[in-house]
Design goal:
- This protein is of the alpha/beta class and 359 residues long.
- It folds into two domains: 139 residues, Nucleotidyltransferase, domain 5; 155 residues, ATPase, nucleotide binding domain (Nucleotidyltransferase, domain 5).
- 36% of the residues lie in helices and 17% in strands.
- The chain contains ten helices and ten strands.
- The strands form two sheets. The chain has a five-stranded mixed beta sheet with strand order 3-2-1-4-5, sandwiched between helices. A five-stranded mixed beta sheet has the order 8-7-6-9-10, with helices on both faces.
- A hairpin with a 4-residue loop joins strand 6 and strand 7.
C-alpha cells in the first residue's frame, strides 16, 4: 500500500470540457497554485462548446498551463508526492489530452498517478473553501453545471449513492440554450442571472417538470416552453421538412427579455430546490454540498438556504466552474486510502458517481 504523508503535495490536471487547468494542492485543503486557461472566447460564436475546437485548444496550451502551475507553487517535481488527472466524465477528445499528458509526466517522474472522477472533483471543491468545517456524513451533493445535474448521497470519502440526475438537458445546458435563444452572451448562466435582475419572475408561468423518479430532473420541456412563449412560430408548409429543419427563430416584438430571463431562472431553480429538499428529507442528510458552475447562481443559493433546514455549503466563485484544484483535493483522499491508477487506464466519457470511485 502507498504511504501517504499527511501533507502530501499533488499536481492535478483538468481537461474534461473547455477549461485547460492545472493546480498544486497540499493535504487536500491548501491550494499552492490554481491556473485555468479559459476557452470561452473560442466557443462563444457557437453558443456552446464545440468538442473538436476544445480538444485542439487543450493540446496547444496544456504544457504551458502545467508549467505555470508548478512555477506559481514555487516547487519542482521532486517536491511532489503524486499526480492526478480527470479521467472522466467529459468530452472524450478533451479528456484524452489531459490523461495522455499526465501519463507522460508519470512515466518521466516515477510519481504515482490518480485518475479522478470529475463529479467527485466538484464535490471536493468544498474542501478547498476556507470556511468549510467538514460536517458529519451523510452529505447530500447537488452537482449542477453545463454538462451535469446530479444528486448524490456522500456516505463517507469515496462512497456515494447516486439518487438521481437529469433525464435530458443539464441545468447549465438549459441556461446556455435559453441564453442563446434570447440573444444573450455565452455562457448563458451569468448572462441570464444578470438580465433577470431587471425582470418580473411572475411574468411567465413556465413548467416545473415532474419525473418518474422523485430525485430526477428534466429541463428540456422548460427550454421548449420558453421557445414557444417568446418566438414567432411560422406555419409549416406541406413540403417543409419536419426534422432537421434549420429555420432560424425570431423573437416576438412584445418580448421583454428581463421578464423571460427571470421567469425561466425561477422555474429552473424551483425544480432544483424542490427535488433537493425531497432528497435531503428522505435520506437524513446532515448538510448540502452545492457545487458545479450553476452553484454560482445567487437565487439558487438563496432558495436552498431558505428551503433546507440544514447547512448549505458552496465553493468560492473561482472554484464553482471547472478547475484542477478540486481534482487535486479529491486525489488526496484517494491517495490517503492507499490507491493509485494503473498507467494503462483509459479516459471515461461516461462515469457515474454511483460507481465505487475507490475501486
Amino acid at each position: 500500500m502507498l504511504q501517504c504523508p499527511v501533507m502530501s503535495t499533488i499536481l492535478a490536471i483538468e481537461t474534461s470540457c473547455d477549461e485547460t487547468a492545472a493546480a498544486v494542492v497540499r493535504a487536500g485543503r491548501h491550494m499552492l497554485s490554481n491556473v485555468v486557461a479559459s476557452q470561452i472566447d473560442l466557443h462563444a460564436p457557437y453558443g456552446g462548446v464545440f468538442p473538436e475546437v476544445a480538444s485542439r485548444a487543450h493540446a496547444e496550451v496544456i504544457s504551458a498551463v502545467v508549467a505555470q502551475a508548478m512555477s506559481a507553487a514555487g516547487i519542482d517535481y521532486a517536491d511532489l508526492d503524486a499526480l492526478a488527472v480527470t479521467q472522466g466524465p467529459g468530452l472524450v477528445g478533451s479528456l484524452l489530452v489531459g490523461v495522455n499528458f499526465a501519463k507522460g509526466l508519470a512515466l518521466a517522474t516515477g510519481l504515482p498517478l490518480l485518475g479522478i472522477n470529475h463529479l467527485e472533483g466538484h464535490i471536493y471543491a468544498l474542501w478547498l473553501a476556507p470556511d468549510f468545517d467538514r460536517p458529519a456524513f451523510p452529505l447530500l451533493a447537488l452537482i449542477v453545471s453545463g454538462g451535469h445535474s446530479e444528486l448524490a448521497l456522500m456516505k463517507r470519502h469515496g462512497v456515494y449513492q447516486r439518487l438521481g440526475g437529469t433525464i435530458d438537458d443539464a441545468a447549465g445546458e438549459a441556461f446556455d440554450k435559453v441564453g442563446r435563444l434570447l440573444g444573450l452572451p455565452f455562457p448563458g448562466g451569468p448572462a441570464i442571472e444578470k438580465a433577470a435582475r431587471g425582470g418580473d419572475a411572475s411574468a411567465y408561468r413556465f413548467p416545473r417538470a415532474k419525473t418518474d423518479s422523485p430525485y430526477d430532473f428534466s429541463f428540456s420541456g422548460l427550454k421548449t416552453a420558453v421557445m414557444r412563449a417568446v418566438t414567432v412560430q411560422p406555419s409549416r408548409g406541406r413540403n417543409q421538412r419536419r426534422r432537421g429543419d434549420e429555420r432560424k427563430v425570431a423573437l416576438r416584438d412584445d418580448v421583454h427579455i428581463p421578464d423571460v430571463a427571470a421567469s425561466f431562472q425561477d422555474a429552473l431553480t424551483d425544480a432544483l430546490v424542490t427535488t433537493t429538499y425531497r432528497a435531503a428529507r428522505d435520506f437524513d442528510a446532515q448538510a448540502l454540498l452545492l457545487t458545479g458552475g450553476v452553484s454560482a447562481n445567487t437565487p439558487l443559493r438563496q432558495k436552498l438556504e431558505v428551503a433546507l433546514d440544514l447547512p448549505v455549503y458552496y465553493p468560492p466563485l473561482p472554484l464553482c466552474t471547472d478547475n484542477a484544484a478540486m481534482i487535486g483535493a479529491a486525489a488526496y483522499f484517494r491517495l490517503r486510502a492507499g490507491l493509485r491508477s494503473p498507467l494503462d487506464f483509459e479516459a471515461r466519457a461516461n462515469w457515474r458517481l454511483s460507481e465505487d470511485v475507490y475501486a
